[in-house]
Every structure is written in C-alpha cells, then in structure tokens.
Amino acid sequence: MVAIKDQVVLITGASSGIGAACARAFAEARTKLVLAARRRDRLEQLADELNQEFASEIHLLQLDVRDRPQVEAALQSLPDSWGNIDILVNNAGLSRGLDKLYEGDVQDWEEMIDTNIKGLLYVTRSVVPGMVARGRGHVINIGSIAGHQTYPNGNVYCGTKAAVRAISEGLKQDLLGTPVRVSSVDPGLVETEFSQVRFHGDAERAEKVYQGLIPLTAEDVADVVLFCATRPAHVNLSEVLLLPTDQS
Ligand code: NDP
C-alpha cells in the first residue's frame, strides 16, 4: 500500500452514500479533502464529523455538476493549497425512474444524462489538465454494473453508465504516456439514498429493490476506491466490478 497522506482528493457527490463513505476512507488515510455536492448542510455535517475524528483538512464546494460555468469557476477558484488535485473521485450521479423507454419521463432522462455523463465530463475537463501538467494524478470514476448489463426498464440509466465506462476507457487511452491513472469502479446494488432518489422519495418502492439479497454497503465500495488509489504508481486497476455475492 502506497501512502497518500497529504494528497488532495476531490470527491463529487460527497454528501451521502458512496461519496460520503469515500470521504471517510480518505480522511482515515490522512489526505486533504475537497468535498462537493449540492446539499451544503450535509457536507458541513460530514466535515464536522471527519474533523473531530481525524482532524481532517477539508474544503467544501457547494456544486451542481450539471452547471458547467459553476463547475469551471469553482475549480478554478480553489485556494492555492487545494487547487492541485491528486485524486479525483467522480461519484456524483443518480437514477430517476424505472420505466419502459416509450413510457419514460423525458425530464428524468435529462437529469440522468446531465448529471452522470455531462457533469462527470465537466469536472474531469477542469481537473485533468492540472494532473497532466504536474505529472501525477488519478481519476476514479464510479460506474456501475449497469454499464455492463442493461436490465429491464433500466434503459437510460444503463445508457449513462455505459457511457461512463466508455469515457473512462477513452480517458485512459488519451492519458497513455503520462503518469495519470484512470480507474473505473463499477458496483452492483449498494444500499444508499440512491433508490429513494430513483423513486422520487417513495420509500416503500425503494426498499423493495434490496429484497432477496444482501446489498453492498457504501463502505464496501469506498474500500475498493481506496485500494485503487493506494496501489504503486505502475499499477492501474483500470476496471473493478464489485457485486453483492447473490447478485447475478
Ligand atoms: P446517493 O443518492 O446516496 O448519492 C448520490 C450523490 O450524488 C449525492 O451526494 C448527491 O448530492 C450527488 N449528486 C447528485 N446529483 C448531483 C449534482 N447535480 N451535482 C452534484 N452532486 C450531485 O447514491 P449513491 O451513493 O449510491 O450513488 C453514488 C454513485 O454510485 C452514483 O454515480 C451512482 O450512479 C453509483 N452507483 C450506485 C449504485 C447503488 O446501487 N446505490 C450502484 C452502482 C453505481 P446532492 O444531492 O447533495 O447534490
């Protein structure tokens, strides 16, 4: 395991679920953290906890990754000691609805495409040039099993995660010859707020998603993300698929 103490780690979607668990894992590894999401109160609460537990150095960014000018301005205006991002965890994402394509809500599609694909691209475009210029860096994209298999009624969400997979591979190709690594961490079912968001707060429908199997925890995914980030520089875990044992 390579020490990553004092490296600057930017995590998008850090206000809950996998992003928050990654923040905790990297805080424990004594990195500096830039935590981004729209819900500032949730970021503040997490930052307070991590400060108390690990005395972490944390910079908060209230950010909607769909808003390109906001993303560019926020990342350009990071204070000097925070601007050199060493590790980017592109985690912000969501699913909306579980419907047949010809019955789906177009607004839901826009939200998924704008967040999962365009948001990830905007953040990546703003951060990676600095990594290339400094000759070090690691981009870790949170993809999904949905980028490998299209499940019934998953049409557009699966399409966005297939795009994330292709973008991760494309970025890796583009960065060949530089020391900057690209990893894609692709989980199966993880119990987070994801299902509640998917069903617009319908807790009963969200709960049913996990019936019949033991889902992954956000911490299971964060363990893998941290593992990727702490390999020696010549080792790139380019794609990791992690599933609950009883998920096909
Ligand atoms: P959560 O709903 O718990 O977390 C999603 C995070 O994304 C929140 O912090 C949310 O913050 C943030 N986010 C959403 N939209 C935006 C936006 N426009 N701008 C900035 N941040 C945003 O779900 P998970 O932790 O489960 O999801 C994290 C990632 O993992 C997603 O990319 C998801 O697709 C992927 N994934 C999840 C799986 C699961 O079963 N849970 C399985 C496979 C992959 P806020 O609302 O404060 O902005």
Walkthrough of the structure:
InterPro entries: NAD(P)-bd_dom_sf, SDR_fam. This is SDR family oxidoreductase. By secondary structure, the protein is of the alpha/beta class. Helices cover 45% and strands 15% of the residues. The protein has helices at 17-28, 40-54, 68-76, 80-83, 106-134, 155-174, 194-198, 203-208, 218-229, and strands spanning 8-12, 32-37, 58-62, 87-90, 138-142, 181-187, 239-242. Strands 3-2-1-4-5-6-7 form a seven-stranded parallel sheet, with helices on both faces. Helix 1 (17-28) links the parallel strand 1 and strand 2 (32-37). Helix 1 (17-28) crosses helix 9 (218-229) and helix 5 packs parallel to helix 6 (155-174). The longest helix is centred in the middle third of the chain and has 29 residues, at 106-134. Residues 12-19, 37-39, 42, 63-66, 91-94, 115, 119, 142, 144, 187, 189-190, 192-194, 197, 218 line the site of NADPH dihydro-nicotinamide-adenine-dinucleotide phosphate.
